[in-house]
Sequence to fold (634 residues):
Amino acid sequence: MKVLITGGAGFLGKKLATALSADPKWSEIVLFDRIAPVGLPEDDRFTIEVGDIRDPVQVGKLVTNDMDLIYHLAAVVSADAETNFDLGMDVNLKGTHYLLEAARHSHADPMFVFASSIAVYGGDLPEVGDDQTIITPMISYGVQKTMGELLVQDYSRKGFVDGRALRLPTIVVRPGKPNKAASTFASSIIREPLKGLKAVCPVTADSRMYILSPRKAVDALLRGAALPGSAFGWNRRLTIPGKSFTVEEMAESVREIAGQKAFELIEWKVDPMIQRIVGGWMPDFDASRGMQLGFEADESIQSVVHAFIEDEIEYQN
Amino acid sequence: MKVLITGGAGFLGKKLATALSADPKWSEIVLFDRIAPVGLPEDDRFTIEVGDIRDPVQVGKLVTNDMDLIYHLAAVVSADAETNFDLGMDVNLKGTHYLLEAARHSHADPMFVFASSIAVYGGDLPEVGDDQTIITPMISYGVQKTMGELLVQDYSRKGFVDGRALRLPTIVVRPGKPNKAASTFASSIIREPLKGLKAVCPVTADSRMYILSPRKAVDALLRGAALPGSAFGWNRRLTIPGKSFTVEEMAESVREIAGQKAFELIEWKVDPMIQRIVGGWMPDFDASRGMQLGFEADESIQSVVHAFIEDEIEYQN
Fold:
């Protein structure tokens, strides 16, 4: 069986590919991205495809007639899509549409798992959102992800693909370097001090975020494909359970686990643009439907930090 | 001042053009459609443009640098978009995007009024929806209108256009002949008997619909452009107030106003596809925000029918 991961050079794409490779049923795991992935484990089943998701011809060729499962992770992230509007529209909306069209017209009727984001929520938010909360995104990234979800939903309803749009919480702790997501600091303020490096926190300490660790995010992507379509019913759009923490709680976990010196590497300096974007995000969510479907949040902020240390720091040493 | 109406050959486009022509401030009223409008009153200020909204070059030329206001009514209607999926995507999603792009890049910063539809609502609906009801469309037309709303919202937030997405109830009584909208029967069962013609009602008598007369729909489109952007605030998506009636109440109004013979011209014969689509629509709505913004529903089903007689039957005689 064959699986495609777009955004395969991203940290989540690589972790997902590695997790999938543990299952011998996958005879080929195709990683597509605009650059080749770096640091992927050795496995003969990995195929690297470098290309541009904005090109419908390339995307059409990517979805071969023997493709069983597509994970669509490729995206222009939040702050980047806000600054470069056309790029965001081209990659996040048109790219998703091209990939869905390719899947629709392939002979294999592939399953289509779309990585959406809680950035679809915005506007007049409740303190705790739930599965009935109206979706009024206030950043272009969220608008484009909402439109992607709607396409996945309608393509599934029409029987063009067996789709699932999984709305991921903010992923913390991301490994590697900061990216152009407005949320990147939430990882930096944990990751950098644990490595003995400085990090700037651009939002106030009481800012609240709804987060999920990379481990649990990979679990969610695997579970999203393992569930039968009937488990989702007509509604293929789902918020994945996460946990809500203040930035202060996140910083305190650094002090608790790595000590006062590590904690003091965090510099607090508000960036109004980031504060505005993050302040407009869903602070907490009652993800009842996701929990009923067996998706699992992290236990605590400490478990999130320990998982990062195990997977990224100890693994490197 | 100059105004553009896409879908200008449709009944609503023509009524809107006629209403706009009463205001001398409009020096040119451009009606764009794939065919020329028929039965438009004589007015030197009307300019007819025949073309294809699926062609971004044509759409780009349409939005001249002196265009002050754009009414985007052109659409592939519900049952048609359900049968011809690609046509619906091309006209309803891509066409809307092309027009927004043309408006964004014109020098006049035009106001953009998008005619959306309560067909955006679907799924597990409450008995009475409201401005906080989650939008989970269950037909492709509703999905495409939702995506159009999201684009209008984001283009407005970014300052590309001064947009307003007005979610119109089902328009009853439409003049002329039945179209490919799943809701077309709601007009037919009133219009045809009043003209002494037979009409088929493809849904059960207890089916409930949220409707608005053409007169009030034109009023809503005028009001949507007359309000300052500040009246809408950040949320440029708005459900226009209508009234909820059962199909039985609609048929009874025919008996009351035109007599038993007219009523007996209605043949009751359920079409499962139409019943399924209409059964999935919003049956009633508390349009508080729209009412606060001064939009007005019809008084009664009788006033809806009388308006049709005055505007369409007596006018013709």
